[in-house]
Amino acid sequence: MKLLVLGGSVFLSRAVAAEAVRRGHDVTCANRGTSGSVPAGAEPVVWDRGDPVPAGLAAAPYDAVVDVARRPSWVRAAVAAWADAHWVFVSTVNVYADESTPGGRPGTLPLRDPITEDVDLAQDPEAYGPMKVACEQVVRDGAGSWTVIRPGPIVGPGDPTGRFTYWPARMARAGSDREVLAPGRPEDRTQVIDVRDLAAWIVTAAEERTGGDYDGVGEVLAMRAVLEAVAAGCGADVDLTWVPQEFLTEQGVAPWSGPDSLPLWLPRPDYDGMCAHDPEPSYAAGLALRPLAETARDTLAWLRATPDAAVTGMSGAREAEVLAAWRASVG
Questions:
Q1: Which residues have C-beta within 8 Å of that of residue 315, sequence separation ≥ 6?
Q2: What does the pLDDT look like over 48-105, one tens digit per residue?
């Protein structure tokens, strides 16, 4: 298969290119050339997607294209250039307008209203999901065949967000700091997907020209199971202290990500559905998952080998402060 990866130098798109090379495909990665190298065996082509498609690149025939873009103008130009290829467009669960209903899947949840023009997300981060809705529609309308995959939180080695990486990093400190602040209720549900598993499935979708919309999500697990799996993967013996979300909010702890956050924690019930999508249709379409403990182990190894890797979340001192306040509040 002759595969064009639009990107190929960072996290998911790089993992897609690496997996396709591993399977013996002819892989071209088109990007600006400023965010890192493409995998060995892939052909790099420099292209800033704000510019017209280079003539040589536009003339090349590709069997499939993988795109992770969020700007509608970029997707329109690329689909016009390679309309005959099978498109695998990587969207996001943020396209769904309903984030509170667990068990959703494509076709059962309403989508956000599309934003068809490019928006600067630094000025309006809420435009991310609506722009992805518009990008999806461009692919459906213009590509000869297509797969749309909507991932939830993507984790694993190379993660530039630092969200999941907080937890392996935190568990690795358990030898000297065994009590771990755990957010919300142990039974709160969440899901993540290893970047390597998602990448493998994307390549399979390109090979098989899989059609339709899918959520690229992992198994729905209780938060206790997630944190225990991370601890096990990191070889850590920890005591989880569960602190209710109301108390965390009173203490100024932020959800999801950021310097004073507990990553992956989401307020309930408003976000009960955001990380609890039904993964069964994706399993039926070929998605296969590795154990979460393996993801945690490999993420910790990557962190130790990458001193400048992003890790978001509260400091150890701040965690100790919140735990002390919680103990004082319950006597």
A1: none
A2: 999 999 999 999 999 999 999 999 999 999 999 999 999 999 999 999 999 999 999 9
Decide: 134 and 77 in contact? Cβ < 8 Å.
Answer: no
216 and 277 Cβ atoms separated by less than 8 Å: no
pLDDT at 331 over 80: no
Least Cα distance to 53 among 12, 28, 82, 33 occurs for 82
Maximum alpha-carbon separation in the chain = 71
Sorted by where each starts, the structural domains of the chain and their CATH numbers stand as: 2-155+193-216 (3.40.50.720), 166-191+220-276+291-329 (3.90.25)
CA angle at 24 for the pair 23 and 29, rounded to the nearest 5° = 95
Selection from 157, 147, 152, 153 nearest residue 15 by Cα: 157
Q: Whole-angstrom Cα distance, residue 197 to residue 201?
A: 6
Contact 78, 65 (CB under 8 A): yes
